[in-house]
Specification:
Blueprint: H1 3-29, E1 32-33, E2 46-47, E3 54-58, H2 66-77, E4 81-85, H3 91-104, E5 110-112, H4 117-124, E6 130-135, H5 137-148, E7 154-158, E8 163-165, H6 172-184, E9 196-198, H7 201-219
Parallel strand pairs: 3-4, 3-6, 4-5, 6-7, 8-9
Antiparallel strand pairs: 1-2
Length: about 240
């Protein structure tokens, strides 16, 4: 990631999640009064939010800080214990999380587990009270299958395809600027990054040169040498 991308998509978002929880935690913890019906007229009627218990967070490599700390903040704020398994692919971030987080969090209710698919598989053999997974649908199926054995509730944030439909009434250069920016942001490794464009032949004739112009304006004549263009994390990806 470029410095700008890291600040916008990783550091700032993580800080905002922490600040949001700190500002609102007392309000979130309060019982929520609800209206009564005929059967509950003589009772107190309210919703009380309680922790799930032990939460497993499996975070990905494309936004290794944001997608680790965001779920972590929410789980801890809700009163849960957490096991965090960062992606082994983003090795530097994995190392930092494992070294830094235990300094500030109570290790009796928080742990970082390092390793690859084998370690993840062994984790999934255990019973958790909630699992939060971000990644591809293939691994998502494995996570959900493991969770189903214990009826463990899950959040699966999975990738997919994102077509970008361009109407003939759109301004080609405005569209090109937006598509080029979000397609190239974080080396294209964002779950909502545009994958392909659907448009008429007439719009295509205008859009292609507009995209070329946008890419040149953002990243120069040689994008490969631009410090603003992110680099993919591995040859495999």
């Amino acid at each position: 990631q470029s410095a700008f991308e890291a600040e916008v998509s990783e550091i700032s978002i993580s800080q905002n999640e922490i600040n949001l929880a700190l500002r609102n935690l007392r309000a979130w913890m309060k019982d929520e009064k609800v209206s009564k019906n005929l059967a509950t007229q003589l009772d107190s009627a309210f919703i009380r939010k309680e922790p799930f218990g032990l939460v497993l967070i499996l975070s990905p490599w494309n936004y290794p800080l944001n997608l680790s700390l965001g779920p972590l903040v929410g789980a801890l704020a809700a009163g849960n214990c957490v096991v965090l398994k960062p992606s082994e692919i983003s090795k530097n971030t994995e190392k930092v999380l494992a070294e830094v987080l235990p300094r500030y969090l109570d290790q009796s209710c928080f742990a970082v587990v390092l390793g690859g698919p084998q370690e993840t598989g062994r984790l999934l053999e255990h019973k958790f009270d909630y699992i939060f997974f971000t990644g591809n649908p293939q691994v998502g199926k494995i996570v959900m299958t493991a969770a189903a054995k214990h009826l463990t509730p899950v959040t699966l944030e999975l990738g997919g395809k994102n077509p970008c439909y361009v109407d003939d009434n759109c301004d080609p250069q405005t569209v090109a600027n937006r598509v080029a920016f979000f397609r190239c942001f974080n080396a294209g490794q964002t779950c909502v990054a545009p994958d392909y464009v659907l448009c008429s032949p007439e719009m295509q004739a205008q859009l292609v040169p507009a995209l070329q112009s946008a890419i040149t304006r953002f990243y120069g004549d040689d994008p490969q040498s631009s410090p603003n263009l992110g680099r993919i994390i591995s040859q495999k990806h």
